[in-house]
Amino acid sequence: MMDPTNPDVRLQVHRWGDGPPVVLVHGGILGGREAWRAQRPLTSRWTVLAPDRPGHGGTPALGRQDFEPDARLIADQLLDRPVHLVGLSYGAIVSMYAAAQRPEHIRSLTIVEPPLFGIARGNSVVDAAAAATRALIEDVELPPEVALPRFFDLVGAPVTLGEPIPPVLIDGMRRLQGARPPDEAAPPTAQLRAAGFPILVISGGHMESNEIICDAIAEQTGAERAVCAGMGHLVPDTGAPFNALLEKFFERGDTS
Fold this sequence. Notes:
The protein contains nine helices and seven strands, in the order E-E-H-E-H-E-H-E-H-H-H-H-E-H-E-H. The chain has 256 residues and is of the alpha/beta class.
């Protein structure tokens, strides 16, 4: 197993465009190239950097998927200069941890539908979603082609799987199985609030547990709050509406 603190471990980073840097951190299943395909129009004004988290795309696995080692890699390799940081789903949790490690280099932080169940622990709706998520990703004996549609249903991703299922999706589900459950995450929300950079929390307006979580994050971090509906959990796949939200927010971050 590779050591996530080893400086020789390098993230594969997909780079497009020219302009101020924007780092996009993907969630589960798809790597950086595929997860942010609808954000290519941003490259007319921004340099888009989309890393493959360990075990995805061109970055080798570092043991099980874990938001804390992933955050250290993002912070060490991509937050060495001021950037706008955006994270989706599990990658949003990674981004929260990473931003807390390099607050001086965060122009803005955008958090999209994170499964940060712990921030609203005790709410019955959130606790049920947390338990279902943990049960699915801990069931490493379940064939990934069976687990994958269950995962999409669980998170509210409107994906129709054909036959055969694309290998990239099977590989991504296999990587997610056995991951560190997101209900163990507790990023330092008070530290993020105190850091002073703008924070935006976006949900897809499709699932009660996600709305509760995003509201709680906004309350604890002092973040702005937005809903970008139309693609369920896959908020970036709305394309133009999501991109417009990002650009408007980035511009405020650059002038704050």
